């Protein structure tokens, strides 16, 4: 989807600090970090939200978690802990309608809502 900012980041036509990319997913730094480590992990293919994750997306959905685990381990936050968040639609606070997993860490997040 050419109008989607995350599709543009995946394609390399919009700038982002990409920290990981493979044939299914891309991870990059959030432009407005809410924690010392704040990465977004997105499917390369445009999927609007969790509401559009079908059986055919099983491998991609699994990869999002696998890459989150790997990035957390690489950054040394696995044992202290971290938070994975997926916002969906209005009540969930979703603002970019390309599925993304937030990986937040580097400080205690217990006070966050
Ligand atoms: P949401 O609120 O949809 O769950 O999260 C969207 C996230 O994308 C926000 O944390 C926001 O800071 C981030 N974001 C929005 N536009 C861009 C962008 O152009 N580049 C990057 N790197 N992050 C973005
Ligand atoms: Zn997209």
Walk me through what this model shows:
The chain is an alpha+beta fold. It has a single domain, classed as HIT family, subunit A (2-Layer Sandwich), CATH 3.30.428. It is built from 3 helices and 5 strands, in the order H-E-E-E-H-E-H-E. The chain has helices at 5-11, 58-74, 89-92, and strands at 18-21, 25-29, 37-43, 82-85, 101-105. Strands 1-2-3-5-4 form a 5-stranded antiparallel β-sheet, with helices on both faces. Strand 2 and strand 3 (37-43) form a beta hairpin. The longest helix is centred in the middle third of the chain and has 17 residues, at 58-74. The radius of gyration is 14 Å and the shape is globular. The structure holds guanosine-5'-monophosphate and zinc ion (ZN). The site of guanosine-5'-monophosphate has 13 residues, from strand 2.
Tell me briefly what this model is.
The protein is an alpha+beta fold and 113 residues long. It has helices at 5-11, 58-74, 89-92; strands at 18-21, 25-29, 37-43, 82-85, 101-105.
């Amino acid at each position: 989807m050419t109008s989607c900012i995350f599709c543009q980041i995946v394609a390399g036509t919009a700038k982002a600090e990409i920290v990981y990319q493979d044939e299914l997913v891309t991870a990059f730094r959030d432009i407005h970090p809410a924690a010392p480590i704040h990465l977004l992990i997105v499917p390369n293919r445009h999927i609007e939200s969790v509401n559009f994750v079908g059986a055919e997306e099983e491998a991609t959905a699994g990869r999002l978690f696998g890459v989150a685990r790997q990035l957390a381990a690489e950054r040394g936050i696995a044992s202290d802990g971290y938070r994975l968040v997926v916002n969906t639609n209005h009540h969930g606070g979703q603002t970019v309608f390309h599925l993304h997993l937030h990986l937040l860490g580097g400080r205690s997040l217990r006070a966050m809502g």
